[in-house]
Structures are given as C-alpha cells and as structure tokens.
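pls design
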C-alpha cells in the first residue's frame, strides 16, 4: 500500500483493471500521469497527434473487446481527441480518456492550455465527462467507467483531473483486487420477452430478422441457428456483418440499405430487430418498409423509446441469453417458411450489379482482396468509396472483423485505428484501407507503425479527388467544386517515414502485394489507382 502521486496511482489502478496499453502524448500538464506507467507494467504507445491516440484506443477496443485508454493534456490535447470520442460514442466503443485540467479557470485568464469549460466541451461527444477533484473521486469515476463498460451499452467516458491533484501524494485506490467486492453483471434475460418472442416466431410465415452491431455478442453460431429455426430472411447492418453464416440460403448479408430491400420487408408478417437503432447510417431511408408486427430487442432504452412504428413490442434485455432461451422454446418447431431461396439469390445478384454500376471497378478489387487475406484478418476502413461499396458485398466469415467509422463518419480513422487494433491482437493479421484524401488526415501516425515495426498493409484507394462528394454534387445538380486535390507521391512519402511502399498495376499484382505486406516486418503502403480493375490485363 505505497503512497504515490495520484497520477501514478491511476496507472496502477488501470493495470489492476486489466489495462495493458495506454495511447497518448505526454506534456507538462499531464506528465504526472506518466510517472507510474512503466512501474505499473503498462505499455505506452506514443501517437503523433491526440486524434491519432483516440483512434488507436478505439481500434484497440474494437479488436480486443477491452476498453481503449488514452492520456491527453488539458486544452488542445482534449480538443484534438474529441473527434475520436465522438466516433466511439456513435459506434458504441468502450474508451476511457483521462486528461489533466487547470486547477482554476474562473479568476485567472491567459494560462497555458486554458479552456472556458473543458469538462463541458468533452461532454458533447461522450457518455459523460466529469472532473475528479479528489483522489477518491478519481478512483470512483474510473471504477464507475469500467463497471458501465461491462454492464451497459459501451460508450466513451472522460475524467479530467486537476494538475495539482495529479501531483499530490495519495493512497492507492480502494478498488484494487484486494478489495472484496462482487462484480456487477448485466441482466441476463427477460422471461416474458422469451415467451412473447418465441410465440411470435412460431406463428410467422414470412419472418425477417435484422441483426445490428449490438447483436454481435450472440456470435455466428447462435445467430444462424435462430434464423434456421424459423426459416427467416436475414439482414445485417454494416456493424453486424458476418453474424450469419453465408451458407444460410435466406441471408441477404449487409444489403439492408439497398432501396429495393423495402420490397422484402413489405412481404414480411414479422420483423425482429436485434441490437440496432435502425439509424440513418444503417438504412439511408426513413423506414424499413414493413407493415406488420415487429419486435425490438436492445440493451439501450433510448433505442427502444425512439420506436415510432405501431404493432411493436420492445424488450430491454441482453441478446445472447435471451435468444438462447428462445431457441430452447422453439425446440421441435417445424419450419414452414414462405420465403424463396431462389428469390434471395436473384435479389443479391441484381443488387450486386447495381453496386458495381454505381461505383465501377471497386468490386473486382474487393474480390481480389478477399482472395488475398487470411480468413481471420481484422480490417479497418476509412470514409472512402472503396469501403462504401465493399461493405455491402465483401463476404465476412465472422463478425467483428471489419471496423469502419459508421456513425460520426470521420475521415482519418483507418490508419491509427488499425495501429491500435494491431497492437491489441499481436500476430493476427490486420490491414487498413483509406482513401487518398482521408489518409492525409492522420498520415503522421505512419511513424508509429514504423516505430513499433507493425506488420500492417495500408491500402490507399487513389482517385485523386473527393469522389463521393463529386458524385453527390452531380446528383444535386451542383457544379463540382473543391473536390480535386493534388496528392503527394504516396510511395516516396511512405519511404520517408521508413515504411515499405508499392503500386500494383494489375489485380494479380495487387493480390501479391497484399500477401507480401502481410509477411513484411513493418508497415507497407499499397497505392491502388482507382481504375486498376478497368485497366488490368
């Protein structure tokens, strides 16, 4: 029970909570937080910008399922990480940001890194933002954050600690493993929900199941068993891709946002939505298109409260235990579905052709990428046309392995998030996919990948412009403006950082470049000209 400055004690408490890695940047205002990192046995990853640190923490959390932790300074350090915090909030990612804060801001002006309301600023992009003015408060808030990560919808939290408080000697946290306490658990299941859902599924002839990101914990086996047990047509939001086995013949995959999917929902006599808010970025339309009974299952009451459709039963419960029990109730049920496997195949073929026509040349590259990657590869993509097309058709053989900035939709996500993911999963293969414009938002983090010698293919989809914005302007009958940029020589830029670099000119060369990069110590930038599939011989 050693007395140490609070900044050091915090690192020891985090280690006790299972934190092995912290992402961040030290400064004069938060240097006390760095006093105890090595002593606690935690690895620190030095980002080149706080935005990069936040995305690394996000990527680490998505890859490992453990909270991502970041240390930043007061003022600009916090402001810089607020974009990743907003992304983590919209995509339900567990992240703990701990920052320093000035001891007093009301009576004194002109201080280094001064903000009018640091706590309030961060509160706009995270679950909660609180100032810990005592050691006891800091320990309690950190304990609260980790308890909520385990028991509620995971979202980022922010704790800021005054500088003098970080420097002051403090007793260790009382919430260490020596503290005799029972862990908190999520509610396991709702018996009424099980009965109602099972009964409704038994009676349905045209059931549809929509799996969202909140259902990923169900796993592929349980989700596919549920669909087979009732002969349901299945859709997955982008965040739930891979949750249903591709061999299941009534699986539409992640084509939920295809406009003509409304015709499928129009035939349904029951729609079951699990772990999804069915938000704008899931549907890209106002409604699913059904006019029948629906059931919603979620752990977030806000999602259930937002339901506006009539004939909807809403249940606040954890999906996995709920549907394990539902399957038990359905034992012996004889499947009599009205859905046609042939219709599903024809729809998928037609919709894939639509995607190929909308964004020519991308799907062949996505197919080549699939052929090049091991099945357990963790993929991180940015806001780029390649990802927009690929996330609808790229076959995932497991959930939770393609990560994208879905909700907040920030550029610059892929590279630092992939670095965090690679740090988290070790030898497991990880790749990053970025557009030529978005890559330059966080290109400096390439130095981190080089410094850590991370085996990391980084694919840059280069069309020399903001292609998606240009297309949107044209559709809106706006003369395209400010959508063309002059790019650097990405290969020389990569080499300047110390990374390997290559530019394949055919799909065969692209496939080989990816496979070589997965065997190369250190990162490899792979520049792909956007018409590679159209010009390949």
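designed seq:
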């Amino acid at each position: 029970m050693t007395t140490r400055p609070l900044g050091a004690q915090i690192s020891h408490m985090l280690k006790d909570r299972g934190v092995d890695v912290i992402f961040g940047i030290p400064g004069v205002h938060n240097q006390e937080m760095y006093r105890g990192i090595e002593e606690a046995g935690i690895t620190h990853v030095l980002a080149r910008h706080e935005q990069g640190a936040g995305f690394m923490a996000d990527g680490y959390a998505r890859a490992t399922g453990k909270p991502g932790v970041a240390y930043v300074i007061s003022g600009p350090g916090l402001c810089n990480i607020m974009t990743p915090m907003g992304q983590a909030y919209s995509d339900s990612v567990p992240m703990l940001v701990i920052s320093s804060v000035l001891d007093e801001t009301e009576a004194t002006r002109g201080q280094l890194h001064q903000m009018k309301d640091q706590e309030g600023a961060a509160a706009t992009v995270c679950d909660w933002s609180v100032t810990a003015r005592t050691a006891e408060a800091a320990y309690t808030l950190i304990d609260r954050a980790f308890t909520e990560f385990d028991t509620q919808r995971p979202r980022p939290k922010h704790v800021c600690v005054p500088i003098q408080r970080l420097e002051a000697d403090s007793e260790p946290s009382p919430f260490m493993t020596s503290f005799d306490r029972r862990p908190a658990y999520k509610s396991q299941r709702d018996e009424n929900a099980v009965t109602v859902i099972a009964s409704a599924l038994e009676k349905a002839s045209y059931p549809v199941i929509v799996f969202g990101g909140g259902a990923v914990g169900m796993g592929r086996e349980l989700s596919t068993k549920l669909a087979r047990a009732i002969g349901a047509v299945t859709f997955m939001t982008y965040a739930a891709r891979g949750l249903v086995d591709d061999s299941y013949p009534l699986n539409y995959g992640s084509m939920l946002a295809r406009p003509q999917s409304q015709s499928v929902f129009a035939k349904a006599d029951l729609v079951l939505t699990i772990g999804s808010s069915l938000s704008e970025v899931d549907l890209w339309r106002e409604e699913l298109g059904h006019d029948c009974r629906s059931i919603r299952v979620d752990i977030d009451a806000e999602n259930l409260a937002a339901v506006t459709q009539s004939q909807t039963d809403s249940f606040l419960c954890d999906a996995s235990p709920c549907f394990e029990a539902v399957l038990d109730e359905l034992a012996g049920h004889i499947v009599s579905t009205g859905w046609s496997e042939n219709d599903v195949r024809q729809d998928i073929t037609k919709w894939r052709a639509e995607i190929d026509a909308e964004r020519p040349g991308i799907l062949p590259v996505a197919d080549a990428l699939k052929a090049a990657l091991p099945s357990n590869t963790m993929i991180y993509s940015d806001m780029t046309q390649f990802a927009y097309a690929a996330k609808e058709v790229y076959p995932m053989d497991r959930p939770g392995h393609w990560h994208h900035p879905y909700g907040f939709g920030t550029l610059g996500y892929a590279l630092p998030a992939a670095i965090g993911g690679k740090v988290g999963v070790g030898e497991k293969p990880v790749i990053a996919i970025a557009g030529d414009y978005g890559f330059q938002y966080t290109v400096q983090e390439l130095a981190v990948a080089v410094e850590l010698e991370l085996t990391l293919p980084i694919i840059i989809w280069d069309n020399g412009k903001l292609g998606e914005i240009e297309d949107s302007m044209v559709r809106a009958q706006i003369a395209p403006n400010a959508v063309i940029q002059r790019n650097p020589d990405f290969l020389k830029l990569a080499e300047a950082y110390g990374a390997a670099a290559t530019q394949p000119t055919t799909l065969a060369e692209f496939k080989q470049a990816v496979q070589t990069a997965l065997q190369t110590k250190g990162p490899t930038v792979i520049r792909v000209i956007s018409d590679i599939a159209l010009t390949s011989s």
